[in-house]
Structures are given as C-alpha cells and as structure tokens.
Write a structure and sequence with these properties.
The structure is a single chain. This protein has about 220 residues and is mainly α. It has one domain. About 85% of the residues lie in helices and about 0% in strands. The protein has seven helices and no strands. α1 runs antiparallel to α2, α5 runs antiparallel to α6 and α6 runs antiparallel to α7.
Length: about 220
C-alpha cells in the first residue's frame, strides 16, 4: 500500500507540473512576435508537449495510486503512459537543443537566448518502467541538458546579463534533478525520486518566473 501511496504523490506532482508547463507554453506563445520563428517558438512547442504528457501520465499514476478501477489494468496503462512520456520528454529536449543550436550558430545572440529550456517534472516508478528504460532515458536527458547548458553558456557570454546567469543556474538545478533521479534508480531509493521531482518542480517555477521577468524588462 505504501508503494501505491508513493505513486499517487508522484502523480499529483506530475499533474501540477504539467499545468505549469502549459502555462509556460502559453506565456511563450503570447510573447511570440508574429512571423518570428525563434527560441520562443521552440519553447512554446516543447512546453506544450511536456505539459500534456505530464498531465496524462500523472493522471494515470493518480488513478493507480488511489486504486480506482482494476489495479492490474491501471498498472499496464501507467506503464504505457510512462514509456510514452519518456519519449515525449526527450523529444521536447531535442527540440530545445535544435532551438539553441539554431540561435547560437545560425542567428547569433538575442536578448531571449538564455530562455530556452525547461523540463517539466518527471517522476518515474522504477518497478513500473524497469531499470533499463528509466536509466537510459535519464542518461539521454542528462546528455541533452549538458549540450543545452553549454550552448546557453556560449550565448550568455555575448549578453553578459544577470538574467542570463540566473537562467543558467536554473538549468544547472534542472540537470541536478535528473542526476538525482538516476541516482535514485541506481540505489533503488524511493526517497530520491521525490527529491528529484521537487528539484525539477523548483527549476520549472524559476524558469517561468524568469520568462515573466524578461517580458517585463523588455
């Protein structure tokens, strides 16, 4: 029963994080200039993917954790949604890498250059997704985040603004969240799944705040 309660908590966090992701997607779209295909475009699309994926996966985890319906069938659906979300999440990361690379090497620096990555929260149950799938996804996410951090650093050296440095700090926190999730899987310690989830949630809120702050400055 404790495991189901743990899944319910993770599902609730995923749903809340999904709502924030959709809010960020909306904010990025609202600030997007007509005809401009830049960082905000990639940001809005990535957040939309992450938000919808998180809400669906979180909802299934809640149903399983609260034992609504057939537990066996709920577990199968949660497993499927978890696998699907891991693919969607890394697709969103890849879109952000493309956006960052495009801005860094094809368009040059812009005032919004540092505001390109977010990852919404991803609490994944070890016993549902399995060691190999979860670990492989975390390693891929860490690799993509490291690329984004490096390209974000290159762009920040051009602008040199305090906002750029704060956003890079949030990216670093996000990277640490994924490392924590990978550590939780390696040591099979459920507590660190929640820690990683909360760290991701915090970095998510920070990046949303930075986006709003950037808009006010502009």
């Amino acid at each position: 029963m404790a495991s189901l309660g743990f899944i319910a908590v993770g599902g609730a966090l995923s749903v809340v994080s999904g709502l924030i992701a959709l809010a960020v997607s909306f904010a990025a779209y609202r600030y997007l200039k007509i005809g401009d295909v830049g960082l905000l475009t990639y940001l809005s699309l990535s957040f939309a993917l992450l938000g919808v994926g998180l809400m669906l996966q979180g909802a299934m985890s809640l149903i399983l954790g609260l034992r609504l319906g057939n537990v066996y069938e709920d577990a199968r659906l949660t497993y499927f949604m978890g696998i699907t979300y891991l693919m969607v999440e890394n697709l969103a990361y890849l879109l952000l890498v493309i956006g960052y690379t495009r801005e860094t090497f094809w368009r040059g620096a812009s005032s919004l250059a540092p505001l390109i990555i977010i990852t919404p929260s991803q609490l994944r149950r070890y016993f549902l997704l399995g060691h190999l799938v979860f670990d492989a996804s975390q390693v891929l996410s860490i690799l993509l985040l490291m690329i984004i951090l490096f390209e974000g650093f290159l762009l920040s050296t051009r602008s040199g603004s305090s906002l750029s440095r704060l956003v890079l700090l949030a990216f670093t926190v996000l990277l640490l969240a994924h490392v924590t999730m990978l550590y939780a899987s390696a040591t099979m310690t459920p507590f660190y799944y929640i820690v990683g989830e909360l760290v991701q949630f915090a970095s998510f809120l920070l990046l949303l705040a930075f986006l709003i702050r950037w808009y006010r400055v502009e």
